[in-house]
Structure prediction request, 99 residues.
Amino acid sequence: MTKDDLHAFLRSRRSIRHFKPDPVPHDSIQRILETALYAPSAHNLQPWRFAVIISRAAKSRLAETVTCRFRQDMTAEGVPEADIQTRVERTIRRQLRPR
Prediction:
């Protein structure tokens, strides 16, 4: 792979908001996590911690936590409450949509 290939690959990333309902195979998750360990880190310490969240209840708790922090950040930035509410509701719908 050339440097140009790598740059093209990295620039092609996109956000995915619609997923297939079937679970990701354990072997695929394992391979992704093993690859992620090679990402650079401060002082080359690789302080990575990963959590694989499968249960609906855990996903719901995570969505609540993320949304709470999202709301705090937008409030601190002075985003109007109506805009915050709209964005928070959209975020919750995305996170909890059946997969």
